[in-house]
Design goal:
Blueprint: H1 2-21, E1 26-30, E2 35-39, H2 41-61, H3 65-70
Antiparallel strand pairs: 1-2
């Protein structure tokens, strides 16, 4: 579990560095009890692509029964 937390922390740090170095614009506004964050369209597309890439890699690492059945496999056997 400790290893997973470290990996997720490294991914989040690298993601932050990637966003800060690509020239993406992020605007944050704060009030008494809330924070509002907005990004431009290019940043949103970049972020979506990065998140999709991370999710794809995580699915490769953490294979579950549901993902094996929905990945287009023709195996219809049931695990007991």
């Amino acid at each position: 579990m400790k290893k997973v937390i470290i990996i997720l922390a490294i991914i989040s740090i690298l993601l932050f560095m990637l966003i800060s170095l690509t020239g993406c614009s992020i605007t944050a506004e704060t009030s008494e009890n809330s924070v509002s964050v907005s990004v431009d369209e290019d940043t949103q597309n970049t972020f979506d692509n990065i998140v999709d890439w991370i999710v794809e890699r995580l699915h490769r690492v953490f294979v579950t029964e549901n993902s094996e059945k929905t990945d287009g496999g023709s195996d219809t056997s049931e695990v007991i």
